[in-house]
Amino acid sequence: MNHRGNYFFLVLFISASYLAIRSYSCSKLKTKWTVYITNAVPDDIVVHIKSTDHDLGNHTISSNEVYSWTFCQKYFGTHFHGYFWWGSRYQSLALADQEILNICRIRFDGDEDCYWLVLADGFYVSASNKPFPDGWYKKKSW
């Protein structure tokens, strides 16, 4: 085999190894989280979600719809912040930080979920998607 063929297989091996390590690190060494935001107000809301590493941009969530995203928890802190607009109302709050993830953590050894419910009187968080108000904690008002 010539040098080009060796180089191709070396690059292929390194790429495959990186992808295997990367997927392993989230599923085995770090917690994979999915955060759900349910809009329970009668109008559309707009949310801008960002962390120090990722800017998920603006998302319009219609009434009774859900927006979600997934991330791998970092060892030294994960922090996603949300900026919400509902008509002329505005609010910002932490959607995934150590305090919130501790509220949502159930398993300690696998994938986790965190649920947010946006109501006319404020923002509620829960570890499970039970009917309101069972298990929901109010974190902030509009």
TrEMBL record:
GO terms for cellular component: extracellular region. It is found in: Secreted. It comes from the Eukaryota. The keyword Transmembrane applies. GO terms for biological process: rejection of self pollen. The keyword Membrane applies. Its main location: secreted. InterPro entries: Self-incomp_S1. Keywords: Membrane, Secreted, Self-incompatibility, Signal, Transmembrane, Transmembrane helix. The chain crosses the membrane at residues 6-24. Belongs to the plant self-incompatibility (S1) protein family. This is S-protein homolog. It comes from Artemisia annua (Sweet wormwood).
